[in-house]
Amino acid sequence: MNNKNFIELKEIGQTIQYFREGKKLSIKQLCGNQISEKTIRNIEKGQSNPRIETLFFLSHQLGISLNDLLSSKQNKLINQFNSEKNCVFNKFNNNEKSEILVFLEFIYELEKEIFPIEVAQEIFLYKLICEFLILKLEEKNIDEQLCEKIRNFFQTYKFPKILEPKDVLLVTIYLQSIPNALDMKEYMVFQQTQAYNDNITVRYRENIYLLEKKQYQKIIDMTQPHFSQANMHATIAVTIMIYIQVAIAYQKLDNIEKANEYQNHAKTLLRYFPDDQLKKTIMNIQKKYV
Q: In the chain, what are the domains?
């Protein structure tokens, strides 16, 4: 084994062992029925070169970011992934097929290919969708048909078991409430309806209020004790979609200042998604659809 590579692997292994022991986890507990104990031992000793999916799983188990485990060499792979992902999005814009259908095929394929960690899967899906919508908005090229397809995707998507039925209903209610882009008044009227004032949406309404006041960290602190991680990011994802629709409406009304304001709200919220990336999955999908 190359001495340099051995040092890098040893550093990763020592980091994993440090966090594992700090959380008082046994190797068996860290495995979570996803990885063999032998593999973990070899990684901690620096004798095994773990795949990116394995490192992502371990960082999830340890409650730390992927970057906490990666050496400078592997960080370059993550940067390469980000570049490839941007390439995928750019290809969508120039594809002769319907952009909407290609995008939805991409998302459904992602769901099949991604490794089975439900929370990570949900967060990554939401982040991809929101990144795509913001990209289209910046190009002034997003339309009602695309938004309708995205709404339908969320409404028919099979949420993970960790979400309670009331949480799914909460998200669905607000997906249905997203304004018609051409009629700002319709959105304001909805806020006075029974659905908006129903008890099931009270906490979500509080979240929207906090977001409007730009107290972004406060929403994170408030939701974490009460909601699952996936639901928290679902709430943020839906809010981003609402902001995008409002920005579109202002574009239609030629109020560029307001359109940019809501677009910036959406972009600010996007940074609250974790930045862990799944390079191998995206590369595979890119080869298939691009």
A: 9-71 (1.10.260.40), 198-289 (no CATH)
